[in-house]
What we know:
The chain is of the alpha+beta class. The chain has helices spanning 8-13, 15-19, 52-57, 69-79, 98-108, 125-140, 172-178, 213-224, 226-235, 244-251, and strands at 31-32, 35-36, 39-45, 47-51, 164-167, 183-186, 199-204. It has a 3-stranded antiparallel beta sheet. β1 (31-32) and β2 form a beta hairpin. α5 (98-108) packs across α6 (125-140). The longest helix is centred in the middle third of the chain and has 16 residues, at 125-140.
Amino acid sequence: MGLLRDLTELWESSAVVRRARLYPFMPDVAKFEGRVYGVPFDFNSQIWYVNLDYLAESGVVPPGENWTVEDLRTLARKLTDPIKRVYATTNEVVRGDTQNLQWIQIWTGYDWLSDDRQEVLVDSPGNLEMLAFWDDLQNNLNATPGWPGAWSAKGNYYQGGVALWMGWPTYSVSVSHMVNHDWAFALMPKAPAGQLSFAQGHMFSIPANAAHPEAAWRLAEWMMSYEGQKAVRHRTPNCGPSFSRVWVRMRAATPETGS
């Protein structure tokens, strides 16, 4: 790839990698055109958090496994309460980030780029239809913050100001420690092109111009081992909604220090 060192041969010959217990899709995180450019570290998908207490208080049944975007629209009407200062949800495509990748896929069945990567498809009819759905939730139903003259919620999902919130499963650590309401997961709602969840992964890579590539691989390989994963998991405290301290703690646990 130019910037990153090709680790394919090291990966294929590593006894540590062969012993590693990985879900089959995990190695794909670190591959490009069949070559390995890093060691997979984690994997995360999109999920919805449901404020069960507020839904029960509102007389609303939580989303089922096969709920749809029209069910979401119906819930948006029922769960928005300006008196209690609770919005049904938040506008998940207004920022133009990974949530948009999620929603264009399940609404249209294609990516934001054409298959040959030559055309941007954000103004395609299907994507505009998806954006119109969220525009309706925000500016017609006023079920999300952001519309002109919007009232202030009593807080975010953690504080009970949002009934349904789309996020990552890793947030569950902070949710379990910080919210005062009962909560549950829900899958993505079914849209015209399906219900699949967008997923992302992270990896540890070695720069192509690394001064000590052998030592760097030794560290990356250790991260694949049971001992390496144990060090990260058990010697790193829960960090709430901010993960910046994880990286500081992680760098203190290396093969050299033995901690």
